[in-house]
Amino acid sequence: MKLEIIYIICLSSVFGLLTTWRISLLLSSSTKFQTLLLLRKWIYYTQVIKRINGSSSWTVSRLFLLISYIIINILFSVLATLSAINLIVPFLGGRTNIICDRVFTIDLPTYELMHRWIGRVGICMATIGIFTLLPLRRYVFKLFQKIHFVSVLTLLVSLWYHINVNHRLPLIYLSIASTLQIYRNTGTRSRSDMVAEQVSSAGLGPSVFRLTCSLKRKWEVKPGQYIYVTIPGLAKHRLLFLQSHPYYIAWEDQCPRSGASLIHIIIEERKGFTSMLRHIRPEQSIIIRGPYGAEHKLHRFDKVLFLYNELSLASQLLAIRNLLEAHNDQSARLRRLSLVWLLHTHVEIKLTSGSSKVDKGNESQQFSQISARFYKVHEKLNISWLIDREWMAEAGNMAISVYGTPSFEKSISKAVYA
What we know:
Elements: H1 3-26, H2 29-44, E1 47-49, E2 58-59, H3 60-87, H4 97-103, H5 108-131, H6 134-162, H7 168-186, E3 193-198, E4 208-214, E5 226-230, E6 245-248, E7 251-254, E8 261-268, E9 284-285, E10 287-292, E11 303-309, H8 317-328, E12 336-342, H9 346-350, H10 383-393, E13 398-403, H11 406-417
Parallel strand pairs: 11-12, 11-13
Antiparallel strand pairs: 1-2, 3-4, 3-9, 4-8, 5-6, 5-10, 7-8
């Protein structure tokens, strides 16, 4: 890639951003809103490639982000090459001893030094290529996380050693900050425990576990948030202390005996880490990191339709409960909330007992229990008819929340665009 092309791309990007900014200043608020809706429809939600299980949807925005990432890497590599050409002494003829000796007159110690370092760099590049394989890359990333954690501890210890004992004020500040941080992460309880309950029975399909984790301090869990779970003592030969697995929080409550905060997650057994959950001991120690994830509020919509299949509903129980509480408190525009959950196995039907968690909170203000308003229909779902029915039921804007298998999400997208 020529240097002129790099400059053209950079200047074109800056010019395009400035032009977009100037156009946005000339548009009215309603035009901006309609433009954003159109962009979200055709860029953010439009799928380019059908996703498979265990992957993410390939939308136009994500594909553009990936292509931009590749182009930026190419540009940066070219810039690095251009700078290296101007900085590194031209010893490229070192591959042949005749050129090094007769043309550049490089002495033997220098030639041997360069020969050794070229070999070392080649070995390092080959090692990096081997570690980019998927099984090794996962463990290397987990190892990097642990090294980062150890580096943070080393930094804290170095702060203590670098504080002058004669200056008491910085020592007092650091002591208070360290004490508050330790108390925040440990609390008054000795450890975090986890109890795994196998929901499914033998012969009813894949095993499903309901994990109940006790927290050392109270969390303000918001809808759509997730945590990273590490269980060091589950299987030592699998290096589980290096593994952190993300799971959405299904719901949260308090222990009736101790009053400790509890969070619940629903996990379907697969290969790998989840296949060992059946071996969890009672009150197994666990390391929890989180909660992570931004809250996607649906309070500004008049109608909300939730469409889920299989176990995907577990990730949105908090969102449903949050909307119901906001409706009772009159802090949301919501006038109609509908939930459609497609169940295929007896295991998923048994999990409907978790719908009672939606009833938690503000029960005195509800006209009826939410769990009593669930209806089972043993028919094939006509998605287009369902969406049209919900759209015509009430006046106002409408949001559709979809989560499930790739084929299910694709069928919902086709129905919405139709």
